[in-house]
Amino acid sequence: MKTVVIYDRLSRLFAEEAPDHRIAICRAYAEARGWKVVHVATDTNVSGASKLEDRPGMREVLSWLPRVDYVLAAKLDRYARSVLEFQRLLDAAKSTNSTVVTADGVVSPENASIIINVLAAFAEYERDMITARITDSKKHFRSRGNHLGGLAPYGYRVSGPINDKRWAIDDEAAAIVRDCADKLINHGASLTGLARELTERGVLPPAEHARKRDGRKLRGKTVWYSTTLRDVMYSAALRGWLVQAVPGEKRGALTNQPVLDAEGNPVSVGPEILDAETWSAVRAILDGKAKGRGAERTGKALLLHVALCSECDGPMYRQRRAVNGKDYSTYVCRNGIGKLGTHRPNVITAPMLDDLVTADYLKRFGRIALQRWTEPDGSAVLQLSEVTTQIERLAGNLSQLDPNGTAARMVITQLNALEKRQAELRTEADHSEGRWVDAGSTIAAEWQRRTDEGRRELLNDLGAVVMVRPATPGAPKRFNPARAAIDYEGPAWVRNDPAGAELAAIAQTEALIAEERRAEALSVLPGRLEALGV
After folding, report:
1. What is the structure's pLDDT at 356?
2. Which of 40, 41, 128, 112 has the alpha carbon at shortest distance from 76?
3. Is the dihedral of CA 100, 106, 108, 110 positive or negative?
4. What is the distance between the alpha carbons of residues 270 and 170, in angstroms, rounded to a whole number?
5. Has domain 156-289 been given CATH number 3.40.50.2000?
6. Per CATH, which fold does 3-139 belong to?
7. How far apart are CA 396 and CA 337, in angstroms?
8. Could you say which of 105, 164, 206, 379 has the lowest number of CB atoms within 10 Å?
């Protein structure tokens, strides 16, 4: 029975454009032809012009190519809207003896080689036209100060006809913004305190507020976070200005800038919620509260979510404190703090606990070879198609050369090397499952190279758990290592793949035995040579 892998792609995912119906069409097409569907891969919010290897779903397809007869999509433009990328897919399929087809019958097993490139060219032309049309349309509406789509910023709602949408004041949300601005400027409020207050009052956060206002079903997310409130209060949209991302920067309230007209003035999309003086004062306060913004970060604590409280099994958080250049930081369980604490205080000196866990970890596992998990990504199939193309081209050139000439010998040498690489890639392409492989260093060596954040990942890989119990009442106020019980669930490559780990351990043991025998032979070799008079 012939086998097939189904692929579907969407540039933007909407409920009415979900891929289910196209996948059902593909399944029906395969069933009618007597093909067995072995896998279904999808990409959502992925452009048809993007590279094959940049799409998670397409990488799945590529990894399946050596084991299927056909790749099936509902229509040609689901594969790609770029002739170059589509040709790469065809080359990859050709190198694995599979065929690309579509369920609408336009590209079938019978006509694939003739019609497919012509249709791909038209798909790319259509994509270019759509891109140009959307770009020109956005440029036009931006210059007029129109809303460009999506949700309006918090404090506003979208109003007006479809070709002349603008922002209007959302009275309920705008009142929240003005109240928060007043408390920040005049009453010494903090973002954390205001976020907690809004949550306790039952004020819906921006996304949920918009859903309620528009009559849509709520998702139940009623918590305000300090970062959410910061983004609302910091944005230039509160002046009624259209904003856009700075080129090269990720889009966000802290980096977005107003869109300027031809004269350099901000483009207004609606009335202002905060006047210039109030908004500037709010931004100055937020900038002042952002300690270290733009400064180099040291990363999170080494034992975050590794050190746990023995009283509640909750995480221990690091409170950083330095005096005269010395680190007096501590790990603290929040459930044991203050009047609202649910158990007795649990605090331990952070630098000493870090050192204790580091020493124990490296003593136990430092000499072990580090393993890493690899997933099949289809890259071998793409390389295979490229190598196969080179072999075909060189073989064609060889037929035109003098068999006894220098050029022919050079081509033959290249062909031998390429054929060896082709065989390696075929073996790699045929491996469809993820696996643990040697990372090329010991855990101790990798530990030295990493920051605390990277070292925490190593601890998690070995399943590290540090259970910290509270200090005994009346005990001396010094670090007591007996308070920390260090345990390990074992390496992730053992927990997730016991059989593979056993084989790897056997192979590593055999390699060590062979190395010991070799060293022993080399140690006695000088004596034997001397006895022989050499």
Report:
1. 96
2. 112
3. negative
4. 11
5. no
6. Rossmann fold (3.40.50)
7. 78
8. 105
State the greatest distance between any 2 C-alpha atoms of the chain, in Å, as a whole number: 103
Q: Whole-angstrom Cα distance, residue 304 to residue 319? A: 11
Contact criterion met (CB below 8 Å) for 302 and 288: no
Cα–Cα distance for residue pair 443/454, rounded to 1 Å: 12
CA 473 to chain CA centroid, nearest Å? 46
Quote the pLDDT of residue 522: 58
DSSP string, 107-125: S-TTTHHHHHHHHHHHHHH
Reference 467, options 302, 314, 300; nearest CA is 314
Please give the structure tokens belonging to residue 351. Answer: 């630098």
Angle between helical axes of 171-186 and 191-201 (0-180°, round to 10): 140
pLDDT in tens, 343-381: 999 999 999 999 999 999 999 888 888 776 555 556 667
* Residue 175 CA, distance from chain mean position: 37
Strands 3-10 and 70-73: parallel
Pairing of strands 36-44, 3-10: parallel
Question: What is the spatial distance between Cα 104 and Cα 79, in angstroms, rounded to a whole number?
Answer: 13
Tell me which DSSP letter residue 488 carries.
E
CA distances from 189 to 155, 289, 338 (A): 20, 11, 21
CA distance linking residue 340 with residue 473, whole number of Å: 20
| Closest by Cα among 133, 275, 151 to 210 | 151
Name residue, tokens 């800038």.
257
Tokens of 316: 């221990």
Task: Assess contact for 230 and 289: CB atoms under 8 A.
Answer: no
AA identity, residue 218: L
Q: What is the DSSP string of 313-370?
A: -PBEEEE--EETTEE--EEEEGGGSSTT-SSS--EEEHHHHHHHHHHHHHHHHTTSEE
Of 38-42, 59-63, 267-271, 521-525, the least confident: 521-525
Q: For residue 331, what are its two tokens?
A: 């790990």
Q: Spell out the domain ranges in the chain.
A: 3-139, 156-289, 307-371+438-495, 376-433
Give the amino acid at 397.
Answer: N
Rg (CA), the chain: 32
Alpha helix locations (H) across 110-205?
112-143, 171-186, 191-201
